[in-house]
Amino acid sequence: MGEVMLRKVSEDDLKQIFEWRNEREVRENSFASHKISWEEHQTYWKKRLAQHDFYSFIIVVEKENVGLLRLNPVDANQKYEVHILISSTYRRRGLGQATVFAAIQFAKQTGIKKLIAKVKSKNIPSKKIFEKNGFVPRCSVYEYNV
Ligand SMILES: CC(C)(COP(=O)(O)OP(=O)(O)OC[C@H]1O[C@@H](n2cnc3c(N)ncnc32)[C@H](O)[C@@H]1OP(=O)(O)O)[C@@H](O)C(=O)NCCC(=O)NCCS
Question: Is 97 touching ligand 1 by the criterion CB < 6 Å?
Answer without folding.
Answer: yes
